[in-house]
Amino acid sequence: MMQKDYEVVIADTSCFILLSKIGELELLHTIFGQVTTTAIIAKEFGIELPA
Length: 51
Prior knowledge:
Mean pLDDT: 84
Oligomer: single chain
Radius of gyration: 11 Å
Helix content: 40-55%
Order of helices and strands: HHH
Distance between the termini: 25 Å
Number of helices: 3
């Protein structure tokens, strides 16, 4: 799989919830390098997101 370079990815809560449930939250960082979300989405997720 070829990795594309993205500067910012904004994900909604469902992405975090689903990846967390299957133990693959780190996959976002692996694919995109940097993931940025809003404080509202982070709060809605309910647990601290990795750096």
